[in-house]
Write a structure and sequence with these properties.
about 50% helix, 2 domains, five-stranded mixed beta sheet, globular, Rossmann fold, 11 helices, alpha+beta, 7 strands
Length: about 270
């Protein structure tokens, strides 16, 4: 019973605040004698909410404001003011309690795919490798082994790497990120004229620990990844070429994989 009473009191308080705000809005409207559009209402609502930033905004008041003030953008505006653009801690930091950008250590990224994938998408492993490295650099992880150097080393070793520690020591890298893509396709199953990207695989991170003969490459993080795009209806080849779709989908995978290693806001994630 006391819960209901408390809720009624909070809602009544919220209604009073809403009434005061609405009354002030009407008085301003009469003085200015001008038409108010959603954009100006959004600005006033933003100022009103910001003025209450130092104290929790009652949920009934927030809901009432969203109901009585028109404009779809106001929902987004109010959500960001109340909750903010949520910062997401990356999986690497959760697992290791370290920030690759702040460590300032050399990082090597390796991407490997199966022969079946390479037979249909010959350059996808290098495209993912290059895309992930580029995104890590733009987010403060600057000491990266060049993707061309890694590709050249792989070519000299039969296109595969059986000893990650040998690879790390060759490039004097302290951290190794190994992306293993077990599935990659851009064509809807049994529908060659429809495009849908689907991929999955595994990501592992390693740290080269010790000195000289005591050096050991230790696994410090592992994570699975799955990707499907678009989630709804597939894209017809009449609307977008298979080449452009593959490039677009690969970019999405690179972003998803790179965000495993740096903090980002929720709005930066691929939807």
């Amino acid at each position: 019973m006391w819960i209901k009473s408390a809720f009624r009191w909070r809602f009544a308080s919220a209604a009073l605040q809403l009434g005061a705000w609405a009354g002030n809005h009407r008085r301003q409207s009469r003085r200015r004698h001008c038409h108010r559009e959603d954009g100006s209402r959004a600005k006033r609502l933003y100022a009103f909410l910001r003025s209450s930033a130092n104290r929790p905004l009652p949920l009934p008041l927030a809901l009432a404001l969203l109901v009585f003030v028109p404009g779809c953008s106001l929902f987004v505006l109010a959500g960001k003011v109340i909750l903010g653009d949520v910062k997401v801690q990356c999986q690497f930091k959760q697992a290791t309690h370290t920030d690759l950008a702040k460590l300032n250590r050399k990082v090597l990224v390796l991407c490997s795919t199966s022969d079946t994938i390479r037979s249909s998408y010959a350059s996808v492993d290098f495209d993912i490798l290059e895309g992930v490295i580029h995104r890590l650099r733009t987010h403060g992880i600057h000491k990266m082994v060049n993707s061309d150097s890694v590709a050249g080393w792989l070519d000299d070793h039969g296109g595969r790497c059986d000893d990650l520690q040998e690879l790390a020591e060759h490039f004097h890298a302290e951290y190794v990120i190994h992306i293993e893509v077990s599935r990659f396709t851009c064509v809807e199953e049994n529908s060659p004229n429809l495009l849908r990207g689907q991929s999955e695989g595994h990501v592992r991170a390693y740290h080269l620990d010790g000195v000289n003969s005591t050096k050991r490459l230790l696994e410090i993080m592992n994570s699975d990844f799955v990707s499907t795009y678009p989630a709804g209806n597939p894209v017809s080849v009449d609307k977008k070429s298979a080449t452009n779709f593959q490039r677009e989908y690969t970019d999405r995978i690179c972003l998803q994989l790179a965000q495993i290693f740096y903090d980002h806001t929720r709005s930066e994630e691929m939807q």
